[in-house]
Amino acid sequence: MAVPLFLDPKLEQPLTSLLTSPRFLHDLVDGLGSPLNVVLPDRIVENVSRFRSVYRRHRLEGEICFAHKANRSSALVRRLAATEAAMDVASLGELQHALASGFTPERIGATGPKEPEFLWLAARTGVTVNIEGHAELESLATLVRHHGLPRVRVLLRLSDFSGTGVKFLSRRSRFGSPASELTGLLDACGQHHDAVEVIGVSYHLDTTSLEEKALALEGCVRAMDECRARGMRPRVIDIGGGFGVSYLADGAQWERYTSQLTSAAMGRREALAWRSHSYGLSSEGGTLRGSLELYPSHRSLAGADYLDELLRTPAPTLGRPLATLLLENLYDLCVEPGRALLDQCGLTLARVLETRRESDGTHAVSLAMNSDDCALEEHGILLDPIVLHRDKPWEAAEDTAEPFGVHLHGNLCLESDLITRRTVFLRRLPARGDLLAFPNTAGYCMDFSAQHAQRRPLARKVAAYRDADGWQWRLDDQYWPIHSAGDAHEV
Ligand SMILES: Cc1ncc(COP(=O)(O)O)c(C=O)c1O
């Protein structure tokens, strides 16, 4: 067996404490079935406060909006309703959910492609609408006039920023309007002055690049100048989400893993994944081709720290730190983190059905869960699950460890149904009846892709929280903030 390449997950409280309660987790899966998703509503409050301290450090004001799309949970949204956080909703269902969970319209922003029903409810209730382009602006203005709705506060979403003397561009996006088309968009807003009020501009870039985001943010400051030159009084710059999560405890493990993956793609070592999958890399006549199709599972800068660094970054052409530009103009900064606010907010549990030794010395572990139930592979996130015996705390299991290479197979009748194609190294071989815990799945991996394949039910979800008697739980839709032990429900 090759030298094991561990990818130990980063674990913080209260996730760590939950994992040291295997009996509690086994009882939950006994009662509610496998797979089971557990969310930790109190942790999302902590994540909001980490973002807020960055605002304070830079003396900035503005909303921290949770991008609901990253998790369908009611418990998390209701818990946030009890804080100062706001919501970013991207569908009619998410908007209805936010309203029903206790968010008032002035704490909600609507983003993404919008059907007329979604636009109508947003306009009717007074939610801020992020305008994706000319066509949406026209639809909204027509709807407002036709139904006699109140004037709607809008942000103009921009993309495709460029700067003179700057060697890079910001990413193209199919959402928003190219920054170069702002003038035409503002002309149209002028014509629809009775139906919409422009309160600012926005972007969302799906990139880890600080340079691109700095260019986009500076582009937004320039766009605000153009609005002001027309006599508008814009006050908000919304920089979307994409602050990211670092999933792994140890950057060196990630470096080692990715360099070994390159060696495997070049044929210099045995494969590191099922059927020699190499995550986008290949070798052509001894030259490495392709690029790594993986999320950077270890990030030295993520979440609120990423925002902090962005705000410290000098504007690419104006030179002053971006936070200074915002402060000088008294602009509110709005952020829409999805994944980053869900960091450490939950886990996915799966029962082991069978463990079988293969002819190559690895083991096939079959789970009562499939790859859509826990979409780590779909999102390119690599991390090791934790084996939970019913009566043994997992740290004790780690101490007596001897590594085993395993492949984690799902419960669909498909050869390709693997929770991850990577050969996972476990310090203890799981046996039938054990649980595998996949930590930190709340952001996109828990329910974004879940389906009813083979008429299997969707995983149940529970909200877990601690009080003086230890861990307690409720079904996700039965949880309200009154159930958390924390005395302060405000951040
Ligand atoms: C407009 C908008 N805001 C926020 C987000 C959340 O991004 P993340 O979960 O990476 O923070 C997305 C993700 O697609 C988005 O499209």
Automatic annotation (TrEMBL):
Alphabetized InterPro entries for the sequence: Ala_racemase/Decarboxylase_C, De-COase2_N, De-COase2_pyr-phos_BS, Orn/DAP/Arg_de-COase, PLP-binding_barrel, Y4yA-like
Domain Orn/DAP/Arg decarboxylase 2 N-terminal: 43-263
SUPFAM superfamilies: Alanine racemase C-terminal domain-like, PLP-binding barrel
Pfam families in the record: Orn_Arg_deC_N
Cofactor(s) needed: pyridoxal 5'-phosphate
Residues annotated as transmembrane: none
Assigned keywords, A-Z: Decarboxylase, Lyase, Pyridoxal phosphate
PROSITE patterns: ODR_DC_2_1
Entry protein name: Y4yA family PLP-dependent enzyme
Native species: Streptomyces atroolivaceus
Lineage start: Bacteria, Bacillati, Actinomycetota, Actinomycetes, Kitasatosporales
